[in-house]
Design goal:
73% of the residues lie in helices and 0% in strands. With 159 residues, the protein is mainly α. The chain has 4 helices and no strands. It starts with a helix and ends with a helix. It has a domain at 17-124. It is elongated, with a radius of gyration of 44 Å. Residues 1-14 have a biased composition (Low complexity). This is Scaffolding protein. Residues 1-22, 35-64, 79-107, 121-159 are annotated as: Disordered.
Length: 159
């Protein structure tokens, strides 16, 4: 008799396992179907939302459209003024420090000045202006002087 009970238990366990498997497969199919249905609904909702946005845009009043254009223009103008102010500050610092504007980096005056000072330590010093071969003071630019054109020609040809 013990053999009959074991066979019955094994058969019962196999039946339960098959039943659980069939239920799980049925659940999988149910969830797949629900997922497809939700995907279709999402696509339909996206299309409806796009149509809604188009209708909303079409229904804007002329005043709302003009207001949006004015706001965009004001934003552009403010951005342009900020860029112009930054360029003017960079030009001032470049002139004060004697470095090219294109070499400066920074967004504030302090940053620009610090960068100019750093560049000055790297760049070679400018040599003094050449003298006029004994005429005038060394290191000063050559000026017209007191010589006439004839004197200059005579001095140049006499050497």
């Amino acid at each position: 008799m013990p053999d009959t009970d074991t066979t019955t238990d094994t058969t019962q366990t196999e039946t339960d396992a098959k039943s659980d498997l069939e239920k799980a497969l049925a659940d999988v199919e149910k969830w797949k179907a629900l997922s497809r249905k939700n995907e279709e609904q999402a696509k339909a909702n996206a299309e409806k939302a796009k149509k809604h946005d188009e209708l909303e845009e079409a229904n804007k009043t002329e005043q709302e459209k003009l207001l949006a254009r004015a706001e965009a223009a004001e934003k552009w103008r403010a951005d342009r003024e900020a860029k112009d102010a930054a360029a003017a500050t960079a030009a001032e610092v470049a002139k004060e420090k004697g470095v090219p504007v294109s070499a400066l980096r920074g967004s504030t005056r302090e940053e620009l000045e610090a960068h100019a000072d750093e560049l000055l330590t790297i760049l070679p010093k400018k040599p003094p202006a050449p003298s006029a071969d004994g005429q005038g003071n060394e290191g000063e630019p050559i000026s017209d002087g007191d010589m006439s054109a004839d004197d200059i020609v005579n001095a140049a040809t006499s050497r």
